[in-house]
Amino acid sequence: KTASRRSSGISPAMTSQTAPKPAPKPRAKLPVANTDLTVERREAVFHLPSGLADVVTSMLRDKRDLQLVEALLSILLIVPTSAALVFLAPWWQLKVVLGLLHVPFVFVVFAARFILGLHYWSHAPRGSVWTKGMPFASVLQAIPTMFIAPFFGIPAGMYYLHHVAMHHRDNNMAPADLSSTMPYQRNSILGFLHYWARFFFFALFELPIHSLNAGNYRLLAQGIASAAFFLAKIFLLMQVDAIATTFVFVLPFFVASLALMFGNWSQHIFVDPDAYEDGVAKDADAVNYSLTFNCMNSPENGMTFNDGYHIIHHRWASLHWADLPQKCIDDLEAHARNDALIFSDADPMAIGLAVMSGNWDWVVSRYVHYGQTPVPRTPKEIEAELKRRLAPIQCGPSKSKAL
């Protein structure tokens, strides 16, 4: 063999130096199948007839958003009708009865569908799900934000300011992100009540100030107009029909504030302090694996546009909702390198409720080991690691910039 190497002009030393190294063995692998890839979609209460569905699909940038349009159309037809019945009831006793039925009906049946539909609607690439040049595209795009949202207690035009322009821009970093969970002990009931109360009482005023500090005067004007319109609408409608206004707009604002804030609190309940130094993220991209978690194989993913994949959503905010489960699988190596958290058979709010109530056995049983540590953590080690990520984290100065 040595002679043949010499005759070809290749020395043994050269052979050992130039031989290709074997590719590193992947360390990350999910221990169970990801059923979210094939789950039945349940966001829409009803579906359009096939002919009409084909017409709507031809107007969409991505045909998969037909499910999103059908879900929002279902809500548009049902929820305002229910609200109208409360306002049109001829006797105050009937108004109270219908109002008491309206609020749980809206929030139990439709709130998750609508809020997560609005969520991805607001993240649509280039600001619209509709094809370029389609007539009335801007009007259709505005309907969920401007018309439907107030029936769920969300002031018209305010969701984009809070979620896209602030929360994603500042990425859960206080003080710029007014909804940051970092300053809190995140299994503290008093901590959550403070977190919620700040939103409930001051969000309408703080969001325009956030836009001012970011130097975005267009969003500043939008925030002021949104807050002013919401307060004026409530004031005027209370003069016309206080009972109906309370059930249709005031109580939903209270319920939505709890639901939205506990949802965000839960999604960002585990934040790894090692990803930060002096209150600032060490790596702007890698920190996304440390400030939230993914939930796979959750029944809720089939009704909330795969909302459980929150790491993926923060890392790639414009990624289409239907692509989130596969992206999680494709990105599993990066998840493992950053010791990112994945849970199975659970949704974010269930995780939050279990943590707040101290049900650690249940939380630990949902933890997924997929190769993020060379040796799987024991149940006690899992609990200790999760509790470590609950501690308050020192926050640095605001990094907001104009959008």
What report would you give on this structure?
The chain is mainly alpha-helical and 403 residues long. The protein is 56% helix and 3% strand. The chain has helices at 2-7, 12-18, 50-59, 66-88, 92-122, 137-148, 158-170, 189-214, 217-240, 242-267, 310-315, 324-330, 332-337, 348-357, 360-366, 379-388, and strands at 276-277, 280-281, 293-296, 341-344. A two-stranded antiparallel ribbon has the order 1-2. It has a two-stranded parallel ribbon with strand order 3-4. Mean pLDDT is 92; it is low at 1-17 and 398-403.
N/C terminus separation: 66 Å
Helical residues, percent: 55-70%
Count of runs of 4 or more consecutive helical residues: 16
Biggest sheet strand order reads: 1-2
The backbone outline, from C-alpha atoms, is: globular
| Fraction in beta strands | under 5%
Radius of gyration: 25 Å
Major beta sheet summary: 2 strands, antiparallel
Provide a concise account of the structure shown:
The longest helix is centred in the first third of the chain and has 31 residues, at 92-122.
Give the topology, please.
Elements lengths: L1 H6 L4 H7 L31 H10 L6 H23 L3 H31 L14 H12 L9 H13 L18 H26 L2 H24 L1 H26 L8 E2 L2 E2 L11 E4 L13 H6 L8 H7 L1 H6 L3 E4 L3 H10 L2 H7 L12 H10 L15
Parallel strand pairs: 3-4
Antiparallel strand pairs: 1-2
Helix pairs in contact: 4-5, 5-10, 7-8, 8-9, 8-10, 9-10, 10-14
